[in-house]
Amino acid sequence: MRKQTQTAILVMGLIFVLAGCGLQNTAGESTGTSSGSAVSGEAASVEFPSEMLRSPLCNDSNYYEEEMDDNEKYYWNQMALDGTRVDAISVEPATQLQYVTNEEIIYSKQVGEEKFRAGKGYGTPMEIWSVPLQKTDTGDKLQWEKKTRILKTYVWDIRRPFYADENYIAYMDCYDFCVYDRQAEKFLSLKGNDLGKKGTPNSDPEGINCIAGKNIFFICKYEGLYHYAVGADSVECVDEKAHGSYSFITIPKKSLLIYQRCGTGQECDGENNHGDKTWYVYDYTTGEKKQFITKEQWQQAYEEAGVMEEYYKRAEEEERQWNEWWGDSEGDSEKDIEVAFEPVGEFFLEGDTIYSIKNGFAFSIDMQGDQTELKYEEDLSNAMFSLGYDEWDVTKVQNGKIYFKHKEPTGKKDEEGYPEEWICTKGYYDLAKKEYTQTRKWKEKDDE
Fold first, then answer.
1. CA distance 81 to 138
2. Cα 65 versus chain centre, distance
3. Predicted confidence (pLDDT) at residue 44 exceeds the cutoff of 50
4. 224 phi and psi, to 5 degrees?
5. What's the rounded Cα separation, in Å, for the pair 35 and 259?
6. What is the rounded distance in angstroms from the CA atom of residue 305 to the CA atom of residue 303?
7. For residue 92, pLDDT beyond 60
8. What is the mean pLDDT of residues 182-198?
9. Mean pLDDT throughout 146-155?
10. How many other CB atoms sit within 10 Å of the CB of residue 385?
11. d(CA 412, CA 262)
12. Closest residue by Cα to residue 421 from 390, 444, 400, 447
């Protein structure tokens, strides 16, 4: 949880991360609703991501999202491209929506219990299915009567990044990066694969959910960042020092991947320290990579903005508040606290501009320019400061608006003295109007 607090911004850009928490499908049934929500208490109009056309769950007609209501019933929400809900399709548990094209919806389904197989370890029988789509004036019509099974496999789980077209299926499982040839009906054995498995060069892959067109990027823990061009016979190592749960963003118009690497390339030590983390930019058409913006450039930007002293003040206060909540310093919130200058928050993209927020300090980088000029976003920073030092993150970026979810403890604690109930709010910052608007407020238990 600490990482969630200190790393407050989720990469939005082209990486639309959907919480695949078990919302899923098989023989779908439409509820016939054109408004309202499958979850009681939600507004009929939903916040809709501007990056929807780059989402794996969007085509030219509709966007799909998974949802579970208060009665633990599962739905696919079929959305129009303007963000209005067209339908809520009732589906069964133990399946998961994976990918949407103009021709089909791809989903996975668990079809049995986990078991041990000699020589292959534990796995769960999973199937991947296709539902054809019929285009109508009102959007997609799912042709459930024509659904077909693409493949069956034994895995611990099927994870994103997940990619599909008429020729290939590519996805992560707990042990592998898998590429399936739909025409030949077999998995590919890819080069650049030290263990001789179907894909990944490492037995502990971590999907970074990063797809740009037919380019897939994924991490092998402690082994590096890898690139697979759909249809190729090999995976390529981009950087062996980019590993772990670090951050990535793609800029397809320039064929660029911006990623975070650590200074050691080694497994983290007892202090969870990966060394000095820096940002690099990789051109996935030429294979060239170089450092993106140096720590010295960040330091100069903070100093020129006149916020260096305030940075340390806020960083120390955030650490002190964390200690007060979670007892990292044996509950001593007055204990001397030392913080390092770690100015780079995670990146997210809006138009041609990259934004980075760390401890509330927001900077932007114009990717149409020389890609080295850091501009301090004072109004956006002040909006972030108004949210306090509590847990918050960026949930999406939509048409010039940055959407936030923010939470602070109510004061109720569990038996171990940790916060167990939170006041949550949602809102957005309008980049043009330079103002923050709260859209929702509610209470939430820590396990929700």
1. 11
2. 14
3. no
4. 135, 180
5. 39
6. 5
7. yes
8. 76
9. 91
10. 15
11. 38
12. 444
- Residue 127 is encoded by which pair of tokens? 């199937």
| Alpha-carbon gap, residue 76 to 109, rounded angstroms | 14
CA distance 188 to 200: 11
Q: How far apart are CA 203 and CA 175, in angstroms?
A: 5
Kindly write down the DSSP assignment for every residue of 401-430, as one continuous string: EEEEEEEEE-S-B-TTS-B-EEEEEEEEEE
Q: Is residue 265 a contact partner of residue 274, using CB atoms and an 8 Å limit?
A: no
Q: What average pLDDT does range 335-351 have in this prediction?
A: 74
Q: Which helix (H) or strand (E) holds 373?
A: none
Q: Provide the pLDDT confidence category of residue 375 given band limits of 50, 70 and 90.
A: very high
The pTM score is 0.71
Question: How would you label 90-121 residue by residue, b for 16+ Cβ within 10 Å and e otherwise?
Answer: bbebbbbbbbbbeebbbbbbbeeeeeeeeeee
Residue 305: its pLDDT value, please?
A: 95
- Pick from 392, 394, 361, 382: nearest CA to 434: 382
Residue that has been written with the tokens 């690139």 in this structure: 227
Instruction: Specify the amino acid at residue 254.
Output: K
